[in-house]
Design a protein that fits this description.
single chain, 30% helix, Aminopeptidase, alpha+beta, 6-stranded mixed beta sheet
Length: 145
């Protein structure tokens, strides 16, 4: 798996990231399917440990990845495809302001069958101030201890 991720990253088709929180590995985020030419696009997939879900870890990681893709890598469009019943993942893209574009029937083979996925997307023009800036602006501040 690591060899494949490294090979795809060197080829410019993927950006694999680990997600850390308080010094420990809690998830992964991958920008994959990177396409150049007239498309300049990629899609993001992610997972997070349930023990840190709801703390803004994955929305922050997605925001950082989007900013990196738009500002440093030079992509124009990012998609996130989510199984419709995956409410926590849907909340991530909704919090960040991705627009829902529709449904891809039988899009990926998961758990022994072809599963539908809702498509969410964002272009660089939609976040001129940056995704992290947008996310921080709307995220409620943590209570002081």
């Amino acid at each position: 798996m690591v060899r494949h991720l490294r090979s795809e990253a060197y080829a410019g088709r993927m950006l694999p990231f680990v997600v850390e929180y308080e010094g420990r590995l809690v998830g992964q985020l991958t920008v994959a399917g990177i396409t150049w030419g007239s498309m300049c696009s990629g899609h993001i997939g992610y997972w997070v440990d349930r023990g840190v879900a709801g703390r803004g870890v994955i929305p922050t990681a997605v925001a950082l990845a989007v900013d990196h893709c738009f500002r440093s890598v030079g992509l124009h469009r990012i998609e996130v495809c989510i199984r419709p019943e995956n409410i926590p993942s849907r909340r991530v893209v909704e919090k960040l302001g991705f627009r829902e574009e529709g449904l891809r029937p039988r899009y990926l083979h998961i758990d022994g069958g072809w599963r539908d996925h809702a498509v969410f997307a964002l272009t660089a023009e939609e976040v001129p101030e940056g995704m992290l800036h947008r996310w921080r602006r709307q995220k409620p501040s943590a209570p002081h201890k």
